[in-house]
Amino acid sequence: MSVPARKRVVLLGATGSIGTSTLRVIAAHPDKLELVAIAACTNWEKLAAIAQEFAVPRVGIFDASSHDAARRSLDAFPAGTTLYRGIEGLEQLAQLPEADIVLVAVVGTTGLRPALATIAAGKDLALASKEILVLAGKFVMAEARRQRVRLLPVDSEHNAVFQCIEGHATSDVARVILTASGGAFRDWPDERLALATPADALRHPNWSMGPKITVDSATLANKGLELIEAQCLFGLRPEQCHAVLHPQSIVHSLVEFTDGALLAQLCPPSMTFPIQHALLYPQRAPGADQPLDLNRLFSLEFRPCEPQRFPMLRLAREVMEAGRAAPAIYNAANEIAVAAFLEERIPFLGIPRLVEQTLQTVPICDPASLDEVLALDAETRRVATQFLNTR
Ligand SMILES: NC(=O)c1ccc[n+]([C@@H]2O[C@H](COP(=O)([O-])OP(=O)(O)OC[C@H]3O[C@@H](n4cnc5c(N)ncnc54)[C@H](OP(=O)(O)O)[C@@H]3O)[C@@H](O)[C@H]2O)c1
Among 178, 276, 280, which Cα is nearest to 229's? Predict the structure, then answer.
């Protein structure tokens, strides 16, 4: 019997939270997965350690001075390592002839060009960076269809929907229901939210993630971004995309079919499950983490998400209804607002205020090209930064 070839993986964002979980999945399946390239922004020391551990021959470093520092310390990398620099370096890694699948887990929208490069090279794309689809989903999905590549969602909710929806006609789907943990403030009284600090927001009850997504979980912008991502990935109308609070993060999402049947995907709250599903797809194998133990007592609770308590969720719904470039404006303004909150320049409740103000100012156009999307993204960041500086 022939041994199946290993899938060769490029991992962009290798030093982050998703990157770390991905490395655990790859380490658990040395017979099925091989890491052929990694990249990050500045943390070249950690990249060197990963390259040593997994014998990775190609390493991308976005930041120029970190790249130069790494070049001066080539001894830290395995012998013969090739270093790549900047966004062009990430694009080159995404197109390596020896790669089968690229996992994009770079925070924010920086991964857009490498994601498009992956698709253009005809490789499967495992996508963790939800911001990419919110910014340019129409173009990314069209390219993926044109090149007939698989776009495999890594976000746990979309991966869950993907698993529930597979084999069913889109016309049979009534709605998708994304679950939300509720983030750090789900049990805080409303009046305390005004005083919430970055340290408070970064204390997520269920997940250990990077700072941007952890703050997004606290505002529920994360769920807003995910509703937009779901609409784009699964070709749904805004009214078919819903969110429900589920504090245990065990049900990762549900799909309701037209006959009223609900299918859900359950597993413990660890990103190794969706990452493994995406990397090995369509194969299945024992996971890097233990599955749910149904003999242990646990409960599953669901409660409605209240848009009045979570203005970022209300705004997400509004931008989905507005369509065109509104989600891209929401995303860019949110990135500026979250960075300002983390730097303690604005309070927690200043995040939705800045996003709403920006949405009311930047005209919602209908970009005809990727260049127009990127120009809108830049303009939105300029406007939001100006509001920030004139507060
Ligand atoms: N964490 C989760 O559980 C989770 C779940 C679902 C979706 N996601 C999505 O996955 C993405 C990554 O999230 P995360 O939590 O893993 O973030 P994170 O822990 O902050 O890690 C971000 C990673 O991106 C790298 N990076 C940042 N800017 C870069 C650039 N310009 N060029 C190349 N690499 C760059 C960082 O490198 P340095 O270390 O050098 O800065 C790091 O490896 C986000 O879009 C998030 O929404 C995350």
Answer: 178
The atom number, within ligand 1, closest to the CA of 87 reads 32
* pTM of the predicted model as reported, rounded to 2 decimal places: 0.96
CATH hierarchy code of domain 323-391:
1.10.1740.10
Give the HSE-up count for residue 238: Cα atoms under 13 Å, Cβ half-sphere: 15
Beta bridge partners of 85: 61
Helix (H/G/I), strand (E/B), else coil: 38? strand
* Ligand 1 surroundings by CB, under 6 angstroms: 13-19, 39-43, 62, 105-107, 110, 128-131, 155, 207, 209-210, 213, 271
Closest by Cα among 391, 390, 388, 362 to 377 = 362
Give the three-class secondary structure for 245.
strand
Instruction: Calculate the CA 366 to chain-centre distance.
Output: 24
Bridge partners of 304, per DSSP, are 244
pLDDT in tens, 107-165: 999 999 999 999 999 999 999 999 999 999 999 999 999 999 999 999 999 999 999 99
Query: Which residues are bridge partners to 245 per DSSP?
Result: 180, 303
Residue with tokens 């784009």: 232
Tell me the CA distances in angstroms from 248 to 51, 95, 224, 374, one per residue in order: 35, 39, 19, 37
Instruction: Tell me which residue has its CA closest to atom 32 in ligand 1.
Output: 41
Tokens matching residue 26: 């790859």
Residue nearest to atom 15 of ligand 1 (CA): 210
State whether residue 243 is helix, strand or coil: strand
Helix %, strand %, coil % of the chain (to 5): 50, 15, 35
Tokens describing residue 363: 């005209």
Q: For 332-345, how does the pLDDT look when each residue is reduced to its tens digit (9 = 90+)? A: 999 999 999 999 99
What is the predicted pLDDT for the residue at 370?
94
Whether a cis peptide bond, with omega within 30° of 0, leads into 282 is yes
CATH superfamily of the domain spanning 7-154: NAD(P)-binding Rossmann-like Domain (3.40.50.720)
